[in-house]
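Hi, here's the filled form for the chain we discussed.

Project: internal
Contact: R.S.
Residues: 92
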Amino acid sequence: MSEKSFTDRQGQYLAFIDAYTRVHGRPPAETDMQRHFQVTPPSVHQMILTLERAGLIRRQPGVARSIEVLVAPEGLPLLRHPQPVKSSGPRI
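And the returned structure, exactly as it came back:
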């Protein structure tokens, strides 16, 4: 497979899906990605659709937890711990 390019954020999702699958023996659910990246359900779903359209992952329609990363493991970035969301106001 030829090398595909992806953004830093997309790379983190791909690395998370790959790492989660290796540790748990099955791909993550969208809720697992929401928890890890601390984002909303629509954000995760949009990213999954974007990765799929870009040919970086494959899913089986109607099958839960069927995400397969199509990038070779050595082509993935290191998974970083997500940065906490910074609040704009003072802490009380």
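Let me know if anything looks off before we file it.
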